[in-house]
From TrEMBL:
Cellular component GO terms held in the UniProt record: extracellular matrix; extracellular space
One MF annotation (Gene Ontology) recorded for this entry: cell adhesion molecule binding
Any Pfam family hit: Fasciclin
Example GO biological process: extracellular matrix organization
PROSITE patterns, per the entry: EMI, FAS1
Taxonomic source organism: Channa argus
Domain annotation EMI: ranges: 40-94
SUPFAM superfamilies linked: FAS1 domain
Name of the molecule in the record: Periostin
Subcellular location: Secreted, Extracellular space, Extracellular matrix
Keywords: Cell adhesion, Disulfide bond, Extracellular matrix, Gamma-carboxyglutamic acid, Repeat, Secreted, Signal
Signal sequence annotation: 1-22
Domain of life, source organism: Eukaryota
Length: 739
């Protein structure tokens, strides 16, 4: 009884001393205890991989999945470390008697270690006074040790075995909470270091051997049972690479990249080391490409390096890790195999060095930054990739230049698209290839991107979307060594025509066009700008007679109010709208349109938009079959009210007798006159902006060599009148500008 009390007291003191910085191991044990609380006091729930002996205190994730490394795990209830069962009582009410380290080895069933301690004359030492930490290999660990090594130890118990056991010991007491991640503790064999890792999932390792039963306190120290026999470590990662015949390619590459030395310096690395064979499977061309570009080589190698030590025993399920290249890999496990990005590729795991751990893999991990543009395209955009090759576009791209691909998903290439004449399709796809490498973060609203087809694409940035012309980007952008890749859901159709030309050539917008003409708003359709137009087709006016149309045209203010409600001052693409939400878009008339994206179709003021996103050089047009009307504007005459009852059936318009439409100043209209005059050698660019009240003059003057072009731009806005005169005289193709 007295002994029991002492032990309980010792445990109490040791475990409560610094509760404040409770370690991951302690947390996971206490979770296990909570999970097993129905089984009685001091019982811990433990997961055991089915068909194997491995047991773990589980993380929340493993517990809920019911698996360890993807394999089904059964739950066992065992006494928590330090406790014992008592005959006829629930749970584990007894605290194990506290004894010296030698006897404690027996208590935790590390009987092989106990036996070896005896034969090697270590017994006396660990029975006597002192304070030791013994990382004691379990009986299975000794069985798993290769025979040659074991025989060597057992045949020379006084030196080899004695030294080996001393390497498992520290002459100081370290509980798991004292074993901090990344620390090196000094063993009792030649002061050689032991590499400690304490992971957030509660796993604690010593030279990558896992503590499977921790904190068994002894009168003269503590015993932690570990799952393998560890051997001394004197080499760095660099040393291992230099002597391993399977890693000569890696060695040469690391040397060329200037990384080899770094791997010889102190640190905490994990290296996934591809074998020579793994590099060979890439082919000579690829190898040559990597070797010839130092930046790419560096990225490739750093993609195999982590700035932390990941021992295989610490991996209980897949987790994402940032590589030193910057992008992530997933390290996981499948049964007993370690996996990278879900693939079993590890031939040999846990080669422990003084500055980290090496896992040898049978394939090369390729980061996007080491891939060429065409190699970035995988499954979801494989059709685009094929088309680019087949139509000769990939060979047209210069090897020393950079590009950006706007790759539509495979679903875009319907039979309809695939049956387009090859030459036309080629032209379409040329406009999916942008000169220069432009990453997602480099795109900005109003940017213009030149394609190899010679077209300029406009960039639109919305709150939740980035669109290039009618194509909005979806997740999955990548950057390769010679370019960037962005994915889209639609075929990109760059603007060819003005809003006016689109409506005119379609032929079913005659009435709308005649109304716009009557309202004097043609310049909105024909001039420069970035407008969105919801254009009502002739169908919208089917219920109106010629007299009705004339009535609409008779009041200019009324007509402008109605028509300008169909125009907005910036470009809104269907895909740029926030799905589900109602997007309020202010019109030139002043009231908002309510635009919504539902079931992949656009709705404006609850009216369907059958065809959206027709790109124009001065905006975008969405076709509707209804006339739109601002709900906050009443109608003032009965005549017009009768007309509206037929024209606008989807809503009611308020009638306020005598209401008159107000005049809307057309300040947004730009009438542009461009005159080109040939002149003499001398480049002059003069910009003169004259505003009435207060007047402002801005003069830009650029003088350069070579002939010959004058461009006069005149912008006249209504009320107050602004006249802007731009005079450009420039030489050759270089348009320089200085302010
Ligand atoms: C013309 O517009 C109508 C909608 O009013 C649309 O259904 C039709 O497809 C368009 N025609 C062309 C050639 O774009
Ligand atoms: C989407 O379509 C389904 C069926 O076609 C319909 O039941 C649903 O109401 C639609 N959702 C919206 C937001 O219009």
């Amino acid at each position: 009884m007295k002994l029991l009390f002492v032990a309980a007291f010792a445990l109490f003191v040791l475990s409560t001393f610094d509760k404040a910085d409770s370690s991951a191991y302690d947390k996971i044990v206490s979770h296990s205890r909570i999970r097993a609380r129905n089984e009685g006091p001091n019982v811990c729930a433990i997961q055991q991989v089915m068909g194997g002996k491995k047991k773990y205190f589980s993380t929340c994730r493993n517990w809920h999945l019911g698996t360890i490394c993807g394999k089904k795990a059964t739950v066992l209830y065992e006494c928590c470390p330090g406790y014992m069962k008592l005959e006829g009582m629930r749970g584990c009410p007894a605290v194990a008697p506290i004894d010296n380290v030698y006897n404690t080895l027996g208590l935790v069933k590390a009987t092989s270690t106990q036996k070896y301690s005896e034969v090697s004359k270590l017994k006396g030492e660990i029975e006597g006074s002192g304070s030791f930490t013994f990382f004691a290999p379990s009986n299975e660990a000794w069985e798993d040790l290769d025979e040659e090594t074991r025989n060597a130890l057992v045949s020379n118990v006084n030196i080899e075995l004695y030294n080996a056991l001393h390497y498992h010991m520290v002459n100081k007491r370290f509980l798991t909470k004292d074993l901090k991640n990344g620390m090196t503790v000094t063993s009792m064999y030649n002061d050689l270091g032991l590499l400690i890792n304490h992971y957030s999932n509660g796993v604690v390792t010593v030279n990558c051997a896992r503590i499977i039963h921790g904190n068994q306190v002894a009168t003269n120290g503590v015993v932690h049972v570990i799952d393998r026999v560890i051997s001394s470590v004197g080499n760095t990662i660099q040393d291992i690479i230099e002597v391993n015949d399977d890693l000569t390619t890696l060695h040469d590459m690391a040397q060329n990249a200037g990384l080899l030395e770094k791997l010889g310096q102190p640190g905490h690395y994990t290296l996934f080391a591809p074998t020579n064979e793994a590099f060979d499977t890439l082919g000579g061309d690829a190898l040559e490409r990597f070797q010839s570009d130092k930046k790419v080589l560096n990225a490739l190698l750093k993609f195999h390096l982590l700035d932390s030590v990941q021992c295989s025993e610490a991996i209980m399920s897949g987790n994402t890790y940032e590589t030193m290249e910057g992008s992530n890999i997933v390290i996981g496990c499948d049964g007993l195999s370690l996996t990278v990005n879900g693939i079993k590729m590890v031939n040999k795991k846990d080669i422990v060095t003084t500055n980290g751990v090496i896992h040898i893999i049978d394939r090369v991990l390729l980061p996007n930054s080491a891939k060429e543009l065409m190699e970035l395209m995988d499954g979801p955009v494989s059709t685009f990739s094929d088309m680019v090759s087949e139509l000769g576009l990939s060979s047209a791209m210069q090897s020393d230049a950079e590009y950006t691909l706007l790759a539509p998903l495979n679903s875009v290439f319907t039979t309809e698209v695939m049956s387009i004449d090859q030459r036309i399709l080629k032209t379409i796809l040329e406009n999916h290839i942008i000169k220069n490498k432009i990453s997602l973060s480099e795109l900005y609203n109003g940017q213009r991107l030149e394609t190899i087809g010679g077209k300029f694409l406009r960039v639109f940035i919305y709150r939740t979307a980035v669109c290039i012309e009618n194509s909005c980007l979806i997740r999955g952008s990548k950057e390769g060594s010679n370019g960037a890749l962005h994915l889209t859901k639609t075929l990109l159709r760059p603007a060819e025509k003005t809003l006016f030309q689109i409506l005119k050539e379609n032929g079913s917008f005659k009435i709308f066009l005649s109304l716009v003409d009557a309202a004097g708003l043609n310049d909105l359709l024909k001039g420069e700008g970035d407008f969105t137009l919801f254009a009502p087709s002739d169908k919208a006016f089917a219920s109106l007679s010629k007299t009705d149309i004339d009535l609409l045209k008779s009041d200019k203010n009324a007509l402008r109010t109605m028509l300008l409600y169909h125009f907005t001052p910036s470009i809104f693409i269907g895909g740029g709208l926030e799905t589900g939400a109602t997007n309020l878009i202010k019109t030139f008339q002043g009231s908002n349109l309510k635009v919504k994206l539902a079931n992949n179709t656009m709705l404006v003021n609850s009216v369907q938009v059958p065809e959206a996103d027709k790109m124009a050089s001065n905006g975008v047009v969405h076709f509707v079959n209804h006339f739109l009307y601002p709900e906050d504007i009443p109608v003032g005459s009965q005549e017009l009210q009768m007309l509206f009852r037929r024209l606008i059936t989807y809503m009611q318009i308020k009638y306020i007798p005598g209401y008159r439409y107000t005049e809307i100043p057309l300040t947004f209209l730009k009438r542009i006159v461009t005159r080109v005059v040939e002149e003499d050698p001398q480049v002059t660019k003069v910009t003169r902006v004259i505003e009435s009240q207060p007047s402002l003059t801005k003069v830009t003057r650029v003088i350069e060599s070579q002939p010959s072009l004058t461009k006069v731009t005149r912008v006249i806005e209504g009320q107050p009148t602004i006249t802007k005169v731009t005079r450009v005289v420039q030489g050759g193709r270089q348009a320089a500008q200085r302010n």
